Amino acid sequence: MDAVLYICHGSRVKEGCREALSFVQRCKEKVSIPIQEAAFLELAEPTIEEAFERCVEQGATRIMAIPILLLTAAHAKQDIPNVLKKMIMRYPHVELSYGQPFGVQEKIIDILLEKVKDTNQEVTDQAMALLVGRGSSDQEALMQFQEIAQQLEERSKFQRVNTCFLAAATPTFKEGLLNATTLHYRQVFVIPYLLFTGVLMSEVIEEVKKLSSSSQQIILTNYLGYHSNLIDLLVEQVHQLHSSLVK
Questions:
Q1: Contact at 8 Å (CB) between 189 and 159?
Q2: For 57-99, how does the pLDDT look when each residue is reduced to its tens digit (9 = 90+)?
Q3: Which domains are delineated in the chain?
Q4: Which helix (H) or strand (E) holds 237?
Q5: Torsion angle in degrees (nearest 10) through CA of 131, 109, 221, 27
Q6: Which of 141, 208, 214, 242 can bridge 71 by disulfide, Cβ–Cβ 3.0-4.6 Å?
Q7: Given this model, what pLDDT does residue 109 score?
Q8: Do residues 24 and 38 make contact, with C-beta atoms less than 8 angstroms apart?
Q9: pTM of the model as a whole
């Protein structure tokens, strides 16, 4: 019997975990596979191990594990696979297929443009954007992030799109924000590239609040959130994985 294991990041902030579980529930409704469980990599329950065992207890012999992550970094390449490897050793009769983070997708650029529009602030010809990532030491993830920024610049009215990070990479968010205020653009749209609310989003809000200028607008958009576009991308990946299993 087939199962889908949705693996979310996890957060110390309960609202962030509730958002993730609500997203998974919306995905489940579009997937006809009989067994579907959600798990968190860290900071919340159920753990990957617990959710994997729930799948097995319900009769799963093939499990599709999908990391619900934005970029392909250490969590997707090492942390989650290491846990899954242990579970396969424990249940060798189970066939496992492993998905991929969202990566670079046109539908995600669509979400970013929507978040900018939702501010109800018209983007002028003197506007730039600051795309704020979680941060990673993984070069592939950093390259993906730069490509997303480039595509956003190409598809928007922004004169430029800079990137910065909340951890593990440079420039830091504080450095990126301070630099943006020196570039003499009348509008700076700060766009958090985050899936859920939490400690990092609170940090972005606090830093933006500290900066105000009569000659420059600092406009904070909402974080990505678990948008319907992401549901479409995730469901498409589940279908692709399932098709490869049944061949």
A1: no
A2: 999 999 999 999 999 999 999 999 999 999 999 999 999 999 9
A3: 2-102+227-246 (3.40.50.1400), 106-220 (3.40.50.1400)
A4: helix 228-246
A5: -120
A6: 141
A7: 98
A8: yes
A9: 0.93
- 25, amino acid identity: Q
Dihedral sign, Cα of residue 239, residue 244, residue 34, residue 225: negative
State whether residue 65 is helix, strand or coil: strand
Q: Two tokens at 204?
A: 């972005």
- DSSP character for 4? E
Predicted local distance difference test score (pLDDT) of residue 137: 92
11-55 confidence digits (pLDDT tens): 888 999 999 999 999 999 999 999 999 999 999 999 999 999 999
Strand order through the sheet with 95-98: 35-40, 2-8, 62-67, 95-98
Q: What is the DSSP string of 74-141?
A: HIIIIIHHHHHHHHHHH-TT-EEEE-----S-HHHHHHHHHHHHTTT----TTEEEEEEE---S-HHH
Residue 7 pairs in a beta bridge with 39, 67
Q: Angle at the Cα of 172 (from 74 to 222), degrees rounded to 5?
A: 85
Which residue pairs, CB below 8 angstroms and at least 24 apart, start in 31-36? 31/4, 31/235, 31/238, 31/239, 33/2, 33/3, 33/4, 33/64, 33/238, 33/242, 34/1, 34/2, 34/3, 34/58, 35/1, 35/2, 35/3, 35/4, 35/59, 35/60, 36/3, 36/4, 36/6
Of 208 and 212, the structure prediction assigns the larger pLDDT to 208
Where do we find the tokens 């900071």? 43
Rounded to the nearest 10 degrees, what angle do helices 139-155 and 106-117 cross at?
60
Both structure tokens of 171: 């420039």
